[in-house]
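Appendix B, Record 12. Input sequence as logged:
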Amino acid sequence: MNAVALESLLELPAYQAYSYSYPHKTAYRALSEPQPFRQAWANENRDALFLYLHIPFCSYRCGFCNLFTLARPSADTVERYLHQLDRQLAVTAEALDAHRFVRFALGGGTPSYLSADQLQRMFDSVRRHCTIDLPTIPAGMEVSPETVDLEKMAICRSAGIDRISMGIQSFSDAEVRTLVRPQQRDEVEHAIAAIRAHDFPTLNLDLIYGIQGQTEASFLASIDSALAFAPEELYLYPLYVRPLTGLGKIQGRIQGRIQGRMESRGGKTRFALHPEPQDDRLALYRAGRDALLAAGYRQVSMRMFRAPHAPASDIGPAYCCQDDGMVGIGCGARSYTRALHYSSEFGVSRRSVAEILEHYLSLSTDDFARIDYGIALDADEQRRRYVIQSLLVRPGLDLRAYRARFDSDCFEDLPQLNALEALSLARLEDGLLALTDAGMARADTIGPWLISDAVAARMAEFELR
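Logged structural output:
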């Protein structure tokens, strides 16, 4: 693309897509030839790895959620899943041979959906199979308010978890109901009290803006409520209404009724309904950002803000997300080597998730030793990933580090980057290309703009189930 193309994109709503990973999972496909796990990792640096465990279970599914998760699974399914996690961990650690994990995350789904006993067994499994010392490395975990209690938090803190991330979304009961989420404010307060009682160094709270009926005043009220708990981190997420989610289905039914009424009145529609409601998310983002900056928080990305009292982000052994690999364990988990990203298949509907999960539960030890679904990254895709992962967070894209990694100039490799300065979306200073405030506000436009044509085509062809 060129500067004109980016200018055209800037005329559209700011929220095109969230570039939290590249390539997106919808670009993954069945590999033409399965690759042995050991071979895929043979030439990777394995002394500074990230271990991610995925727990694809929740007590309910929020209306906006398109993550790989199953609401209210049977007790037998959860137990079978934990057994498979243990088997996969054993195979993975053996195939990695000499290795060391220096980062750990437990995500989902809702990891705290597990019982206290199940959490303990899972942590025991990690320690038994992997070269990892959880209490000495950054280790995070996602929770939901209704699944948090003192016993579970004690087990997690004792295991070495030092960061708890909890989705609040809103402190307004009406807005939470709009998101098809049953939590109540007192439930949130009890959960935060249980987390704080065990002295986790970092508490992160997630809030959402763009909820139907939400106003700037109500969004700022939720931020004020969150600030009262002095979280070390706050994430402000724009609401996306995606296909096959609860809100997506509701929106589809509403559009269908409107379409039907219009056709019944004249045989055809007189206008095209925009796929999302009137978009005031950018104004809400700016209000929320300004409120957090005024409260002393530092902006790290369009979504992430860190408090002055947050622990230093470089605590623990060195790890660089651009250079070091991630090993995902569990159905729905992704893994990254430099040249291969892989995972299980991806689905959103309950039926699709249940089918993919059942397949995972049937896998043998030999199956875990092979990789059969993902995407290979050629040199161009590796460069694009580096740029996207660096540019959308502060301090930004380090040109010297890029040259050291790829032995080339990033502006020659991706000439479209020149458009960012021309449009005042980024500033080049002291070898660092950093987004301006205006650029950070348009991160969900800039990220998709940097996707290669090949990856964009694979994403467009993906059939979501």
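Residues 46 and 99 are 5 Å apart (CA to CA).
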